[in-house]
Amino acid sequence: MRTSVDADPSDCLAACREELQVNFIAAADLWYEALMQFRENGGGRIVNMASRAGQRGYAL
């Protein structure tokens, strides 16, 4: 959800929360679950992949 400058502040906040959930919190949740499995099974590896859009943004 992309909002314009004149959007309602609650809409902007909702958009920010959605972006954080998808791009950061979901990854942290997966890392946690993986670490629990690693402890049970003697180790493992996490490989994170990202696009350049995360560094430079993107246009719709």
Describe this structure in words.
With 60 residues, this protein is an all-alpha fold. It has one domain. It has 2 helices and no strands. It starts with 8 loop residues before the first helix and ends with a helix.
SSE blueprint:
Elements: H1 9-41, H2 53-56
Supply database-style keywords.
single chain; mainly alpha; 2 helices
Compute the number of helices.
2
Summed over residues and divided by their number, the pLDDT gives a mean of 81
Helix content: 55-70%
Task: Give the percentage of residues in beta strands.
Answer: under 5%
- Please give the number of β-strands: 0
- The helix-strand sequence is HH
Q: Evaluate the radius of gyration.
A: 16 Å
Major sheet attributes? none
Number of domains: 1
User: Which class best fits the helix and strand makeup?
Assistant: mainly alpha
Shape: elongated
Question: Could you write a compact summary of the structure shown?
Answer:
The chain has 60 residues and is mainly α. Helices cover 62% and strands 0% of the residues.
